[in-house]
Design brief:
The chain folds into 2 domains: about 60 residues; about 110 residues, Up-down Bundle (Four Helix Bundle (Hemerythrin (Met), subunit A)), CATH 1.20.120.660. It is about 90% helix and about 0% strand. Helix 2 runs antiparallel to helix 3 and helix 2 runs antiparallel to helix 5. The radius of gyration is 50 Å and the shape is rod-shaped. The chain starts with a helix and ends with a helix.
Length: about 190
């Protein structure tokens, strides 16, 4: 037999049952593999890629929010430091104002004594005493002795004004001197 005849015998030979089953299984396997590949591609395109894009956007937004939080935290820290500084300045200014109010009351009383004005001297000393009463809350306990001495001096001057107007002048002078010294020690002039 020559080669052409062999090929025609092989081609003409009917397919066996096993060959048919193998061919059917291969076809279905190819269909299943194609379906699996197409399903994977479909899942990738419809679920994975949009989810990945959402995740990337969320990550970017999260990084931006983290940067914003960091900036805000820095601002808060700066503002707290400024607030502490401003509060210190406010406390110092309030203390200075109260000391000056007491000094103004004592000087007003001294001028009223010179002018022989009992009501003016008494009113000025009451204002000075009220200012001196506010000092312990502003100075704290470290200046308690000084404040106590100033309050006693103001009380004595008020008693002197009520007893004899002119006899209050030395006590008023001492009160004024002590208040000026307190102001100079708390707020030295540059």
């Amino acid at each position: 037999m020559n080669e052409n005849e062999k090929e025609s015998v092989i081609a003409a030979r009917p397919e066996t049952r096993v060959q048919k089953r193998v061919r059917v299984v291969l076809r279905w396997g190819l269909v299943a593999l194609s379906a699996f590949v197409l399903g994977g591609l479909l899942i990738t395109l419809t679920l994975y890629l949009p989810s990945r894009q959402k995740l990337d956007r969320a990550t970017t937004e999260l990084e931006r929010a983290g940067a914003t939080i960091s900036d805000m935290t820095d601002q808060i820290t700066t503002l707290k430091a400024e607030n502490v500084n401003l509060q210190g300045n406010l406390d110092a200014t309030t203390l200075h104002m109260v000391v000056l109010r007491a000094l103004s009351g004592a000087r007003g009383a001294s001028l009223a004594v010179v002018a022989d004005d009992y009501a003016g001297a008494r009113l000025s000393l009451i204002q000075a005493t009220e200012a001196l009463d506010a000092l312990p809350g502003l100075l704290g306990n470290d200046q308690g002795d000084v404040i106590s001495a100033l309050q006693q001096s103001a009380d004595q001057a008020l008693a002197d004004v009520q007893a004899d107007l002119k006899s209050a002048q030395p006590e008023l002078d001492q009160l004024i001197k002590n208040l000026v010294q307190l102001e100079d020690s708390l707020f030295p002039n540059p």
